[in-house]
Task: structure prediction
Amino acid sequence: MDSAAPTISDDYTGEVTAGTGSQRRTLSHASIVKTSVGPMDNNAYLVVCSSTGKSLLIDAANEAGTLRSVVTAVAPDVSMIVTTHQHFDHWQALAEVASATDAPSAAHPLDADPLPVPPTRLLEDGDTVEVGDVSLDIIHLRGHTPGSIALALTDPADGRVHLFTGDSLFPGGVGKTDGDANFASLLDDVESRIFGRYDDNTVVYPGHGKDTTLGVERPHLHEWRERGW
Result:
């Protein structure tokens, strides 16, 4: 059974923890509902098209009942579930939520094999995911895992980009990597494919913890490279 009706606050701060309810940010053509689930405080994001009511779930990470209740309350017509990368804490609720919503799933081919549900769609760098009238661009970021992806949503009213980065970019640095080569790969991709493409007003929605912006993080890129993590 689904959990009780969720608490969803429209006072969006970007800071949520497991068990404290969800927060909703409203854009001109969509809304973003952020929920923290599980013992590792994984963020799951529901992107909802304002004109059609169709939704996209990014990372069915944990607490399937919680995520199902959010989906039911906000936007039960789930067009797709996207998994940002293969790590176990980001897909523990995927099978149950996919079954309950009858939604197709998607991931990068290099991270597809460990997932409990074979992806219906394989996402490559430069692809676009459509959710009703909302489009999100796929960005492949190599290093945290071979097939980690980010998703970029641009608000047509003000041009502001909303970037869902999984575990590849956080406030204060890039995601954890195994070895110097993977760290260099991830930071190179983050610099060229994110900081080199989007402006300082871009909002970053990470796989754990608080949101940030590229403007806050950009001055520290050299520091991250020097420290090696």
Summary: The mean pLDDT is 97. The helical segments are 64-74, 94-101, 180-195, 214-217, 221-227.
